[in-house]
Protein 1
Amino acid sequence: MSPGARRLLVGGLALVLFAATVLGQGIELPRDVPPFNQAYTEGPDAWGDCALGTEGCPDQVCTTGCLTTAFASVLAYYGVELSVAPEESCTGRARSGMNPGILNDWLRANGAYGRCVQDPVGNCCLVWGRLPDGVELTFHVNRSDVGLNPVASVVIDHALRQGRPIVAGVHWGASCHGDTGQTEDCHWVVLTGKTADTYSIIDPYNADPASPYGIRTTLDAGVHGAYVIDRFVVVEYSSTASTAAQASQSAGEAEPERPSEPSALVLLAALALVAALVLLVTATGNEAAP
């Protein structure tokens, strides 16, 4: 093999290794997603025992409030704050900010709970279109019963790289919670990042009633077991600047850099690898010829 061919081969292999290193790096959101516990019932301003839904819905945040709790985490990530009057508050006091209790009070006061097929009494299900102004949702389905299909994985990875958290409905067994007959969306979690092939999540259920915090774990090690995603929602917030972003700008802090998509790098590396292999085969063939 000529010195020039050898150098090209080494360069191509180096590019391939560089691409592999970039792809192996994890995906992280630019800031932490606050974890909330739906089952927080013992502590200041605890929300777990608050009624969830309206029109006689018998549910409580601690029992069926995982979706509301997940959205409270995502809205807090975006810096969204809400206010509720004393007569609208579970505590009987005016409150402002963002946590599952405040969000649940706001949703109840603004008609954001509707009738569910599986709930014969009252309005117990979140009405997606009545979340606070500025929230934009994109709905997706994972068409696989055993894990993420390639399309869903690409959509989730892209959203996370763009700094957009994912609220995902999951199951972990043949049916939801035993004898309900429901087989999908048994629970709702927040996807916050990825390391190799493992997604990091916030599980909004923490069995400790004295803790206001949800569990930071992974999709395959959820509180209830290994989770399989059924459907997922990419959550964006269209306000020109969230409270957190405004605070950072006023303090002169730069917005954290977000990872760029590696697709162009992957293509370049693949082409370099093909070219290097072709060159290697050609050079080897030439050296072997009499």
Protein 2
Amino acid sequence: MQVLRPALYALLVLSALFTFWSGGAVAGRMLPPWTRSVAPTIFAIFLAIFTVYRFALMRAKKYPAATGLFQVGLGALIWVLLLPSTRQKIRPPSAPVDEVPALMSSPDPRVRALAVEVAGYRGEGARYAADMIERLEDADPAVRERAHAGLVRLAGRDVGQEPEAWRELGRQRGWLR
């Protein structure tokens, strides 16, 4: 019994150290990926020994059964949370993907028309200028009309329906390379 209690504490501290260290760099050093399974393994050994120890105390009527069962159950819950499959990295949400360029080349003319219109209203519309100019030659008249309206909105003036005139204006304004 005298050796069991310090051994349990040592296993618990070791498990905690591996849990915190495997989550990121400590003192500039990262542990290899396989060490993520070390913490739950050590904690499982701790929990097995702890459970046997608590059940022995409960059977000898030296420890309340409800408290012992609660501690063992809580230990099992903590072990499940330590498993690598349970852990998730908390990270900021990824930057939203801009789908407008892909939608401008959709086979559906309604989608192209809507995408061109959306591009014309965007604050950073200059980055869509090349695609919008290309849509001036679209087979669908609604797409051409919305591309023209978006370019007029972007430029603040109208240079006509011809794509070449818009390309020239785009080069002057730095929209095109």
